[in-house]
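Hello everyone,

My group is preparing for a crystallization screen and wants a predicted model to guide construct design. The compound we'll soak is pyridoxal-5'-phosphate. Before spending weeks at the bench, it would help to have a computed complex in hand. I've included the protein sequence and the ligand's SMILES below. Output in structure-token form would be ideal because that's what our pipeline reads.
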Amino acid sequence: MSRAFNFSAGPATLPEPVLRQVQAELLEWKGERASVMELSHRGQAFIDCAAAAERDLRELMAIPDDYHALFLQGGATTLAALLPLNLAGPDQVADYVITGHWGEKAIENARPSIRTHVAASARDSGYASIPPRDQWRLTPGAAFVHYTPNETIHGVEFQDIPDVGDVPLVADVSSNILSCPIDVSRFGVLYGGAQKNLGPAGLTLAIVRKDLLGKHGRDLPPIFDLANQASNDSMFNTPPTFAWYMLGLVLQWLKAQGGAAAIGQRNARKAAKLYSAIDGSGGYYRNPVATNARSRMNVPFFLADAALDRPFLHEASAAGLLGLKGHRALGGMRASIYNAMPEAGVQALVDFMADFLRRNG
Ligand SMILES: Cc1ncc(COP(=O)(O)O)c(C=O)c1O
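Reply:
Good plan to model first. Here are the tokens for the complex, ready for your pipeline.
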């Protein structure tokens, strides 16, 4: 057995008990004498599996009844393009609050179909902080306000939900979904790819307040109209069945861990341990993000001497610590410490960092 601690930003580490269960039932699933991958999404066995995953998601996130939970394909990027088409007419304005790379991508994907407005951006600070709420220039009557509660590359995370009045708040939660309790009723839409906190790549979740769909007044291809997925239990076309099944297992694992509150406490402990190792290194390691905007999920850090980046990564890998290379846009390192990263993994990382500093500092 040579599984390492995997700090990849996504696709990312998955709970080992889930992988073992998948391995055990890969060939024959639930007495079906076939793999779950080989069965029709219209068959009762898969319909039951899909419904159970939705029930568990609703329970874990306390999703109110007036919200759809959609299980889609295309990744967060496709949703960043589809949501504007579904939530706003061509002449309507939507506000974007941009605190990193993924906020920029979201507005790029919206521009061809709606009028976009940058209500606030932290670009000038190098995306190392969150513009204070009282400096946002929101458009009265906007169709929605879009933001990214956790910016995966820049390691910037909102510590609370911004108040935008009655305008629906649309949040890309790809990298922090179900990492702690969240009040879904404060949002119009929560969306994100599953491949970081909840499962393998291929499945995209959208939790959408029901009254927001079906009002766009556009002549959309039916597959782009999310109301069609909503009225067909996310099976308007073939869903990503294997990813949906695996997400269901991850949700069961999350319930066994004690749910969102318990996993949130564990995530807070992991992040505190890692930031404390960085901040306590006397400048040898550095995280550039304002302390009130630091992410609990993605921790970028830089070595004082970038010439040591390569040896750091090489030796980390030899020590069983994978996926620490920073995003190419920033360089340096990044440790993604999603739900499935055990506390022992973070401990192993901080031990390695201390040892590397001793030998090279
Ligand atoms: C916050 C955020 N949004 C969007 C994306 C893009 O997601 P996808 O590749 O699923 O389209 C990512 C991927 O890393 C992300 O972290």
